[in-house]
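Trying the structure run again after the queue cleared.
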Amino acid sequence: MSKIEAFLSKAEEAEVVEAIRLAEENTSGEIRVHLEKETSIAPFERAVEVFHNLKMENTKDRNGVIIYVAIVSKQFAIYGDQGIHEKVPADFWNSTKDVMLHHFKNGNNKQALVDGILKAGEQLKSYFPHQDDDVNELSNEISRG
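Done. Tokens:
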């Protein structure tokens, strides 16, 4: 079993995908999770690279968010697109990162992701509320590197 497969069981992965669906019900923002074994660069820089590799900047309101996790490196980052950065304070993601870090430190990987996703969705809701004509612009599936 690879490190990525050991990080989340299939059932846990399904719960993470469901959390993304639930979070996106309240916001026009789009949330994705990307897992990979490790990174040799700063996790935030890698999150930005992955964000663009996944073409997440192609959302209508530029309000995509990626939660990036390097499993072996034990690092993670949250990156939000231009539309988010133009509207939110500089420390916008700190409370989300704090919640996630607590769970990661206790070995609760699934709960770290679920709580991070739901908190991100809550935060996005005030800046990008769900609209009647919203469509799911990005896959809710976890991507892997």
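Strands lie at 30-36, 64-70, 75-80, 143-144. Worth checking whether this holds up in the mutant runs.
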